[in-house]
Amino acid sequence: MKKRMISMVRWYQKHKPRATIGVCRYKPTCSEYMILAIEKYGCIKGGWKGIKRIFRCRPPYGGIDYP
Question: What does the pLDDT average to over 35-63?
Protein backbone atom coordinates (compact mmCIF):
# COMPACT_ATOMS: atom_id res chain seq x y z
CA MET A 1 0.00 0.00 0.00
CA LYS A 2 2.86 2.39 0.82
CA LYS A 3 4.43 1.85 -2.58
CA ARG A 4 1.12 2.52 -4.32
CA MET A 5 0.57 5.81 -2.48
CA ILE A 6 4.14 6.92 -3.10
CA SER A 7 3.84 6.02 -6.79
CA MET A 8 0.69 8.20 -7.02
CA VAL A 9 2.58 11.15 -5.53
CA ARG A 10 5.50 10.54 -7.91
CA TRP A 11 3.01 10.47 -10.82
CA TYR A 12 1.65 13.83 -9.64
CA GLN A 13 5.18 15.24 -9.42
CA LYS A 14 5.81 14.18 -13.00
CA HIS A 15 2.49 15.51 -14.40
CA LYS A 16 1.69 18.50 -12.17
CA PRO A 17 0.50 21.75 -13.76
CA ARG A 18 3.30 24.03 -14.93
CA ALA A 19 1.83 26.94 -12.95
CA THR A 20 2.69 25.13 -9.68
CA ILE A 21 6.34 24.40 -10.50
CA GLY A 22 8.69 26.31 -8.22
CA VAL A 23 6.04 28.18 -6.23
CA CYS A 24 6.07 26.09 -3.06
CA ARG A 25 7.15 28.10 -0.05
CA TYR A 26 8.09 25.10 2.06
CA LYS A 27 11.21 22.98 2.06
CA PRO A 28 10.61 20.08 1.30
CA THR A 29 7.74 20.67 -1.11
CA CYS A 30 4.31 19.35 -0.20
CA SER A 31 4.63 16.31 -2.45
CA GLU A 32 8.08 15.48 -1.06
CA TYR A 33 6.68 15.94 2.46
CA MET A 34 3.86 13.50 1.66
CA ILE A 35 6.37 10.87 0.54
CA LEU A 36 8.55 11.37 3.64
CA ALA A 37 5.51 11.19 5.93
CA ILE A 38 4.20 8.01 4.30
CA GLU A 39 7.63 6.37 4.57
CA LYS A 40 7.99 7.40 8.22
CA TYR A 41 4.44 6.96 9.59
CA GLY A 42 2.71 4.62 7.15
CA CYS A 43 -0.21 5.12 4.80
CA ILE A 44 -2.92 6.34 7.13
CA LYS A 45 -1.04 8.63 9.52
CA GLY A 46 1.49 9.75 6.90
CA GLY A 47 -1.24 10.41 4.35
CA TRP A 48 -3.19 12.44 6.91
CA LYS A 49 -0.08 14.48 7.79
CA GLY A 50 0.50 15.13 4.07
CA ILE A 51 -3.08 16.27 3.53
CA LYS A 52 -2.88 18.61 6.53
CA ARG A 53 0.34 20.05 5.09
CA ILE A 54 -1.35 20.77 1.75
CA PHE A 55 -4.08 22.74 3.52
CA ARG A 56 -1.41 24.73 5.45
CA CYS A 57 0.46 25.63 2.27
CA ARG A 58 -0.70 29.19 1.64
CA PRO A 59 1.38 32.28 0.90
CA PRO A 60 2.98 34.22 2.58
CA TYR A 61 3.69 31.45 5.10
CA GLY A 62 6.45 28.94 4.57
CA GLY A 63 9.76 27.70 5.91
CA ILE A 64 11.43 24.42 6.66
CA ASP A 65 9.00 21.73 7.80
CA TYR A 66 9.84 18.03 7.96
CA PRO A 67 7.46 15.26 9.10
Answer: 84
